[in-house]
Automatic annotation (TrEMBL):
GO cellular component, one term: plasma membrane
Organism expressing this protein natively: Lactobacillus amylolyticus DSM 11664
Name of the featured protein: Putative permease
InterPro entries, per the entry: Azg-like, Azg-like_bact_archaea, NCS2
Keywords of the record: Cell membrane, Membrane, Transmembrane, Transmembrane helix, Transport
Ranges that cross the membrane: 21-41, 47-66, 97-121, 133-152, 172-189, 196-215, 245-265, 321-338, 344-363, 375-404, 416-434
Localization, UniProt: Cell membrane
Amino acid sequence: MQTLDKVFHLQDAHTTVKRELIAALTTFVSLSYILFVNPNILHAAGIPSGAAFTVTAIATAIGCFIMGLVANYPIALAPTLGSAAFFAYNVCGNMHINWQTALAAVLVASILFVLITTLHLRELVVDAIPQDLKYAISAGIGLFIAFIGLQNGKLIVDSSSSLVTLGKFSSPAVWITLFGLVLTVILMAMNVPGSIFIGMIVTAIFGICIGQIPLPHTFISTPPSMGPTFGQAIFHLKDINTPQLFIVVLTFLLVTFFDTAGTLIGMTEQAGLVDENGKIPRIGRAFAADSTAMIEGAICGTAPLGTSVESSAGIAMGGRTGLTAIFIGIFFLISMIFSPLLTVIPTTVTAPALIIVGVLMASNLKKIDWEKFEIAFPAFLIVVGMPLTYSISDGLALGMIAYPITMIATKRYKEVSIMMYILFFIFIGFFLITNL
């Protein structure tokens, strides 16, 4: 006990091992859906589901250990659905880049992430992007994720006349998705801990009961090998040799920037870690932890890791130190023996989780200054551009190009940072490369 207090400063944080354990269990239950949602998304990119399951568990566990030991924060690091969606549906899907090369792009972005963090440039770059556009990016990714969930659940389907239309209620897949969505919405509205995870489990049982989901042959087994993915990012670094892939690397870098920085700040404020001067202690270590976790995640074989918003559930239960993160990592390692459950968690079961996460991310819309058109227009392009173009990078580019134009038109060009002007030209080049 004294050793734990010496490492994690439990007494100084006014917490106990028991409280940290309960907080970790709460966060794990809230975040455990990632074990099934992330493999489903990565499978769409061509990565074997079994390997993706094991990689998700191991990469998350290591990320949590790094955050707990380096920064002493009660925060989990796990694959983010926004980055996973960009990886699978945009890079591998729309751009037709194989998943091995995409992992290499993630690794390059991760190395740049560490370099920028080490040089203390990360805060400068983040500060250069207007806050309203950061909110728009988060909300736009949320809408994109929700749209993917609606498609995976067959609630929205292709239409030759109107591009998309409502799915047929005669489809069993639609009923499974609707059952899970309604149940999860009710649980979320009632503030039930682990609502998304509970919703997925009950929905899977419902699918089994109506004969649409087969029962697994066993519930516990040896974890699938992550051999198919481990090290592929390193082996394919040589493939990062085209302007298109350099743009992919840049986009991974930017998306992770906005995602992790905002979430990390929000979590530390919730945990009461911000001092009276508004400074966040050990923020440099926290940035170093999540950027390092990105590298290990890429090497293992998953989309970028980032600060998990589900950490707020554990913080609400009293988690205050890195011991919470360590316990979360241990829970994820234990969870690897439950890989057979992947067969009863198809996309129709995980679809409600994507929709709900999309709703939560879209809450940032309220923070955008819609009264100023020069802000509202580029923010709007980002928000609607991501789901309508089915591309996070395209939506991001639209807003980044529009922002300097509207600010110059309103004679506010001095308020635009040099970095924003640089991004303006970068994204124009991006469109010229990818859409000619």
